[in-house]
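WARN  no MSA supplied for this record, continuing single-sequence
INFO  ligand: magnesium ion
INFO  echoing inputs
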Amino acid sequence: MDELLSPFEGIGKYILKIIDELGSLIIYLWESVLSIFRYSINFGNLIDQMIFIGMDSFYVIGLTGLFTGMVLSLQAYYAAKIVGVTYMIGPTVALSMTRELGPVLTALMITARCGSSMASEIGTMKVTEQIDALEVMAVDPYYYLSIPRILAAMIMLPIMTILCSLIGIIGGYIVYAYVLGLNHMVYIEKIYQYMKLSDIYNGLLKAVFFGIIIATISTFKGFETTGGSKGVGRFTTQAVVLSSIYILFADYILTSILF
Amino acid sequence: MIVLERLTKSFNGIKVLNNLNIRFDDQKITVVIGRSGGGKSVMLKHIIGLIRPDSGRVLINGININTLKKKELNEIRKKFGMVFQDGALFDSINIFENIAFPVRQHTKLKESEIKDRVYSILSDVGLSGQELKMPAEISGGMRKRVGVARALILNPEIVLFDEPTTGLDPIMSDAINNLIISMHNKFKFTGIIISHNIEGAYKTGDVIAMLYDGSIIEIGSPAEIKSSKNPVVNQFVTGSMNGPINFNMI
Ligand SMILES: Nc1ncnc2c1ncn2[C@@H]1O[C@H](COP(=O)(O)OP(=O)(O)O)[C@@H](O)[C@H]1O
Ligand SMILES: [Mg+2]
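INFO  complex generated
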């Protein structure tokens, strides 16, 4: 019996751990936000981080958007063809991208590229006593390291999401017009007809939350790092896994509130 | 003056500091010697508030730093410079920026004034011309000297050195010791040096203290330590395997 229950026990423990961690994360985010008021924003660091997030993820997000839009167009075609509504392919691609896939895929890609390097950079600083050195020099590490990253992610995630969705819609168009050989004007017209501005806004609002999640969790895990270079690897992995879970979880919650 | 009063600290149920008492006098250099893993770094981190004691007090000029708010503690910390055991240099910025870092954070000096200061201390520590290298590109001895320069650039009242000579060859060790002495003559800080290099301790210290079993078991001038009757101190300074210190401990 114990054997049979043990997977459930494991899941239960995991959930408890995640809830416990959520508490620490909220306290950490609060501490970081307080440090903005205690000092003021370091714009040099903020710009550096924004460039880092933008440059580092530009190509990967462009490619992700492109292929996702292309495959959406292709998949939608098989369904739409049956009921003879192929003119709905454009709106399907556009709405999926702006409301859902653009924000989520961008967030997951940025987690993989930037979240991991935030965690490992700060983690390395932690195990090599560079964080202690900051504190000793009377520099608040939250202010110096967390805030620029959290703000940069908040600003850059929506921008990268727009990029991803836009390229996705273009990808869908390419397949629609050149692979499926359908009337390309219909694709664009129908998007105009069915897409509302709120679809875009709400998608971008999601992206802002995802940005906060990625940078908060990744920097938090960096600060938590112990155990030398092995520890850096372990905590970086945790940062990526935890960020991804929280993104998907928050996506569901936000979708049910916003749409 | 810095006073550690009945300081006790445990990690995972193991007492690292046990009722430790010591006083560091102004403008003197005190060298704290003791075994590796004996809690010397832990003691040093208490002095600057990186670690809080389980019980006991840390008094900096009469102020108990463990009761301070973050902002007040940071004001106290500005009196300090610290040289970390492995340098703790910021590895994403070059030597110049590492040394300039505290200046940029805490003063509003113009770029040209920052340059003057950094170049002047670079020549004090014998690193002129190395300022554009990254921390990963320089040797261990150079890293320690950059650490010393970074700790001293704001001319602090108190400087903490965590094993400034450990891991260096004897010639480089001696150079670092001479550097500390000449910097002390120039800046007149209160120095606390952690070391297990006994010759270096005799040379640099006005006072030598021995940390053993979580507390300070002996403190005195180099001459007094040399002729100590305490068998533990005696064994440590002569570097003998035989005596009350069991090398299987810890
Ligand atoms: N942050 C910490 N967490 C847990 N244990 C620690 C921590 N810092 C130091 N210790 C333990 O305290 C003991 C003394 O360490 P330390 O002060 O670094 O020795 P040393 O005298 O060589 O500087 C060691 O056993 C070390 O493992
Ligand atoms: Mg140590």
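Residues B 40-41, 85, 162-163 surround magnesium ion (ligand 2) (CB under 6 Å).
INFO  checksum written, moving to next record
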